[in-house]
Amino acid sequence: MNHLIVYSHPNPESFCHAILETAVKTLQSKGHEVVVRDLYALGFDPVLKGSDFIEFQSGNIPSDIKAEQEKISGAKVITFIYPIWWTGLPAMMKGYIDRVFSLGFAYAVGEWGPVGLLTEKKAIIFNTTGAAKELYDESGMFDAIKKTSDTGILNFCGVGILEHKFFTSVPSTDDATRKGYLSEVEAVMSKF
């Protein structure tokens, strides 16, 4: 199976990077073809510009956006790995969504409203947080984040969600807990 991983974290020694390494290793051990798009390593420009809109309207897709859309088109499953910052997607990941999941590629506007165009794609999301699980549970933040990313972005584009996992208190937790988190990543990736 063709599997795309969209990864966003500026620190190559982060726990998100450990998640990435575990996901890639697990998928490859199962015989999957894996493509990784490390947005920081690529120097991906997350800023949606007026010139992007002009290009879209003229039928020309900017080359950096086209390259990412081709990766998405070639994948059956897309895994997103990124931290939760200020209860949302980091700017780099949000910019990737803004620029790559564009009108005409990820969705269209039909007679009855928006129509998702990525209906053959499935997604897995791994998020890390600095805050404790209890804080996110009590505030309803897990549900809010899922409503935004799963429903408002991916489902809107027709993408089905296979799994969305949160790994909490990452900076303050112990190594045993982090190893447990990575075992969860391995289990999820082995399942699909």
TrEMBL record:
Alphabetized GO MF terms: NAD(P)H dehydrogenase (quinone) activity
Q: Does the keyword Transport apply?
A: no
What range(s) does the Flavodoxin-like fold domain occupy? 1-187
Keywords, in A-Z order:
Oxidoreductase
Q: Which InterPro entries match?
A: Flavodoxin_fold, Flavoprotein-like_sf, NAD(P)H_dehydrogenase_qn
* Recorded superkingdom: Archaea
A GO cellular component annotated for this chain's UniProt record is: cytosol
Instruction: Name one matching Pfam family.
Output: Flavodoxin_2
| Protein family per UniProt | Belongs to the NAD(P)H dehydrogenase (quinone) family.
Name this polypeptide is given: NAD(P)H dehydrogenase (Quinone)
User: Which source organism does the UniProt entry give?
Assistant: Candidatus Methanoperedens nitratireducens
Recite the lineage of the species.
Archaea, Methanobacteriati, Methanobacteriota, Stenosarchaea group, Methanomicrobia
